[in-house]
Amino acid sequence: MATTQEYGLGEFTFPRGWFMVAESAKVTDKPQGVKFFGQEFALYRGKQSGKVILLDAYCPHMGTHLARNSTSYVAMDGSVEGDSIRCPYHAWRFGPDGKCNQIPYSPGPIPPQAKVRSWKVEEHMGAVFVWHDPEGGEPDYDIPVIPECNDPAWVPIAFDDLGLVNCHTQEIVDNITDVAHFGPIHGSLTKYFENEFKGQVAVQRMGGGHRTLTTDDGPMLETVATYTGPSILITKMVGTHESYIYIAHTPVDDGSAYVWHGLMVKSPSGAAQYNEQDVAIARQYQEMALAAFAQDFEVWKHKRPNIKGLYVQGDGPFIKQRAWYKQFYNPRAMREELLKGVEGIHHARGIEPAPASKAA
Ligand code: FES
Ligand SMILES: [Fe+2]
């Protein structure tokens, strides 16, 4: 596994952006320890507000992990009270703002340093996201959501938890520019392909056949895959079913990532309100989509780091994409400079551009 520095991405080890940290359904009032950006966190749902709370994991008293405990009486009795959480060691209690609001055995005042960092989290589409910014700034873009996420004609998204992969996130993001892998990995016949970079957005437009997602005589599979920020990829897919593939990856350590996959399908029956059968077909289609994604995932799992590829004519615009990705690893003030010569539409030699830009 190679590090951000080895990839030469920039001055920050972990990128700026919105990152998925959990499926909503899995966050309860039983706190869990999670690790992202090389740090430990305590993640739980407040009993009072129902809101998700993400705190730095280590208690300022004596450094105990607030969430990785199952044997303390505090933990066994339930360490979440209202929206606060009690440390399993000496029962100091921390509010959702991260400030200690009770030390049960100490009559003295609570020292102002008795606090942990509380992170900015939001819930959308059944997932929990955190804003991570090495410069400490406020979000400069919204969490991308599937436009039809509340439309009853669409079967709601379900997530597949793929877990940890020991490759740097750069290798995952490379996929957006990788036109030449579609044939060998996915069995697809790429008819057209292009990338477009603009600000924090990277788009891939692709059309062709796909052995695992459509049949030989089936409709052409056309996809528009969009990264909004460094980690959330939403792919609109027109083929057997109108659907969206949702892929989120979040750095765990410098050189590893946690990955989720999800699919949202327009009710195959065409009904304004999806029914049980639609759900069954959607989940079946999800399995096929997951199988296609697993084809990429297996490569990432076993490859060595690709610090500097041996690219040839016909490869996608990897160099431009890696330059685009650098904006998240550097101060915002450098963004304009970093995106010079990167923004715009880029093609791969010998591959047709997407129909719209061909006509343009
Ligand atoms: S270490 Fe947390 S209360 Fe003592
Ligand atoms: Fe792929």
Task: Provide the CATH architecture of the largest domain.
Answer: Alpha-Beta Complex
Distance between the termini: 42 Å
Largest sheet: 8 strands, antiparallel
Structural class: alpha+beta
Secondary structure tally, helices: 8
CATH homologous superfamily assignment of the largest domain: Naphthalene 1,2-dioxygenase Alpha Subunit, Chain A, domain 1
Query: Strand-residue fraction?
Result: 25-35%
CATH topology of the largest domain, what is it called? Naphthalene 1,2-dioxygenase Alpha Subunit, Chain A, domain 1
Q: What is the global morphology? A: globular
List low-pLDDT spans.
none
Q: Please list the strands of the largest sheet in the order they lie side by side.
A: 11-17-16-15-14-13-12-18
GO molecular function, one term: metal ion binding
Pfam family, one: Rieske
Keywords: 2Fe-2S, Iron, Iron-sulfur, Metal-binding, Monooxygenase, Oxidoreductase
InterPro entries: Cholesterol_7-desaturase, KshA-like_C, Rieske_2Fe-2S, Rieske_2Fe-2S_sf
Task: Describe this structure as you would to a colleague.
The protein is of the alpha+beta class and about 350 residues long. It has 2 domains: about 15-130, Rieske [2Fe-2S] iron-sulphur domain (Rieske Iron-sulfur Protein); about 155-360, Naphthalene 1,2-dioxygenase Alpha Subunit, Chain A, domain 1 (Alpha-Beta Complex), CATH 3.90.380.10. The protein contains 8 helices and 18 strands. It has helices at about 5, 75, 170-175, 180-185, 275-300, 320-325, 335-340, 355-360; strands at about 15-25, 30-35, 40-45, 50-55, 80, 85, 95, 100, 120-125, 125-130, 155-165, 190-200, 200-210, 220-230, 230-240, 245-250, 255-265, 345. The strands form 4 sheets. An 8-stranded antiparallel beta sheet has the order 11-17-16-15-14-13-12-18, covered by helices on one side. A hairpin with a 2-residue loop joins β2 and β3 (about 40-45). It starts with a helix and ends with a helix. The relative contact order is 0.16. The site of FE2/S2 (inorganic) cluster has 8 residues, from loops.
